[in-house]
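PROTEIN–LIGAND DATA SHEET

This sheet pairs a single protein chain with one bound small molecule, zinc ion, given as SMILES. Inputs appear in the order they were entered. The predicted three-dimensional arrangement of chain and ligand is reported afterwards as a token string under its own label.
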Amino acid sequence: METKSSILNSQFSITFGSKRIDFQLDFSNRKSLGITVTPDLEILVKAPIDATIDKVKEIIRKKAPWIIRQQSFFLTFHPKMTDRKFVGGETHLYLGRQYRLKIISEKVENVKLKGKFIEVTTLDKSKVKQLVNDWYLRNAKKKLHAIAVELIEEFRKHKVEPSSIVLREMPTRWGSCTAKGKIILNPELIKAPKGCIEYVIIHELCHLIHHDHTQKFLDLQTREMPNWEKWKMKLEKLLA
Ligand SMILES: [Zn+2]
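PREDICTION REPORTED AS:
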């Protein structure tokens, strides 16, 4: 689902209510207008060669509510990280809970959870960020994998399973599923509550059966996780 726009496309926009909708327009030999909203929130429009710009804009305006819905759907998967300074007392999230950083001067470098704290021991304060991020990644590998294994097991009833599960930092998404059935998870998910992690994994597992976000896809996702909307909303708010 990686769509990168070509430079040849031309950029247009319409206004809908208070919103401005930018879209890339591309003419081709086709009968009707096609609109695609990419996971990066771009709007790609393919129009028949004889369509006028005004006609295209009129159709986009009619389709605006649908376009906005699609964008807000994808927006859920855009992790919003605020800049942290990695100084003592600062709040950091782990599995949906808030912990404060406690930095202790000690020769042995280590990071661990202790009560309401993420305790970091090091003599070099400039290394705190790296140590904490390495710790997050180690835990992401362990925990996300453990949660995924259980859900994959449940999904066997549909006679599907992912070819593999990998972690990869993605600036704009929480997870994705390739055409070959590889599920990619954003390690930042380790900061979210377990329900949010389950939601993202279930969402990607459902893509093994339905590759886009059609009603059939949504029906399956709802059967697998009836309260998915609640977790989707939490995920949206969590890292804002
Ligand atoms: Zn999806």
